[in-house]
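Annex B, item 7. Sequence and structure tokens for protein A, then protein B.
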Amino acid sequence: MNEKMGRLTRRTLLGSAAAAVGSMTAAGRAAPAAMPLSRVRSEFLRFDDPADVFKQHFRMERDLVDREGSTLTWYHWTAFVIAEGRAPFPLMRYEGIEYSYFRVVAPLEYRIHAHNLSYVRDLTTGRFATTIENPITGRRVATRSTLLLNDPGTLASPRGFRNLAGDGKQYRQPYRLFRVEDNLVKLDSVRTAPPDWPVTHIENSCQWVDADLFENCTISSLPVHFAGSYVFPFLEWLEMGDAKGHMLGFFDGRKVNRPEDLPREFLERTERDHPELLEPRWGEFERPIKFLF
């Protein structure tokens, strides 16, 4: 920082702001200047080899390791109630993490397990909430943290995903499309749900990263940000009674290098309430698989 910039004070900043407003007012009376052309670059990325598509997807979503690795993502999301006969409305916020961990079990095939932890936050204040009012029933209910610890896991390869709760015969190829937007590479994708989950469940997301990082093949785990949505049933603790409908979540977040890098408030609560979820659950790999691969 040079000496002149170092002498900036609140008074000079306010004075500069006032002068800027005055200049904008004067400029508003003049003929508007023509905006320079700044056309958005938008292209689709195509890969001839399915193996290349899989590798790039794994770099974006997880980590293209040679043996085993893990990926930690952190997110905020807003939960909406979609009840029959009523306009959708936002009910609460969540803050949470997904920790996934994976091992190579065959050439370019990974066994993947994961767990999720999310805490309810007040929709207006953003503070952690122990109770919320359910507008459908008019009752105040106690909130529960959301823990997803029973995902059976998947096998992932260029051929598709095989859920470990199945017989291994069905490969499910996820929807995914890579595209370029200016200096970003984006991945639009739809995740497949375990076979025993509600048939209405679906999750889609968009992940993005700087193009120069994407093109650097030495980076096995790209530092992506992401946003997306998913549909899921009413949570049991909401006590919805006979109401028909479902929930809709909109989320956004990013990869985090390690648990110590999580936001302080979230990290401190998890260290107190669920410290075991701040590390991979490698014991999941000891569970036998029903089929050969």
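Protein B:
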Amino acid sequence: MLLRLPQPYDFELSTVRFRDFGSDRATVWHEGGLHRVVAGREVRVVEAPGGVRIEPASPAALAEIGRLLGLPYDLAPFRAWAASDPVLGPIVVGLGSFRPTLNPHPFEALVVAITTQQISLSAAAAIRGRFVERFGVKHDAAWEFPERARIARALVEEIVAIGFSAKKAEYVVGLARSGLEFEQIAELPDDEAIATLTALPGLGRWTADWYLARHLARPHAWPAGDLGLRKAVSKFYADGRSLSIEEVRVMEERFAPFQNLSAQFLLAGARLFG
């Protein structure tokens, strides 16, 4: 079944992060297509005229893959706004038909953020891949991401054994066992959502910012504490001078009301344009 996406859209460019940083087994680039388990069935996503083709198709697959591929983002007003920025504008044009991706599941999104804390994206994907293999369900090319209830029953020692630090293992198990209501967080304003998330051990401001950006698609999310974003802003706006977290956070207003998309395009531009 065809899932239509706003055009122009470059499937390979938009999903490059799933190839460049390695597979975590839950979202897998395999033989020219993207594989993911949705509602207990593995689906394959390939480029097609006007969007992507999803097989086997179902309402759940269409909804989840649409979110994964960033369908909630409204790029037209962002592109029009960015054209007035002499730095960001050319980056957006240079990225052509790029559309940022999202993580469609809240528990998975937070586990991804925890595993990525203070290590490279490639290392985090490798560690997370072992986590998915150990606690998830194997299908064909992809694995179903571990359910929250399964991790709530896990021992911290089991997670340490597959490469997590003791602290990160505690954070993941603590998250699974917590009373955090993801549906409630989705209804909160940004500041309240951040406060709720950061009240849990292991969920700092960086993690909360990325959750708002890459799961909730909040337009004003600006992860100033992210090293990659700091490097990108330093490269494009400070002639390479290393900016502090505070300096990058102050620059947030420059990108209002499109802080999230600005961050995503700056990061993609830094990766692809060196």
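Comment on protein B: Strands lie at 2-4, 27-30, 33-38, 41-48, 51-55, 137-138, 143-144.
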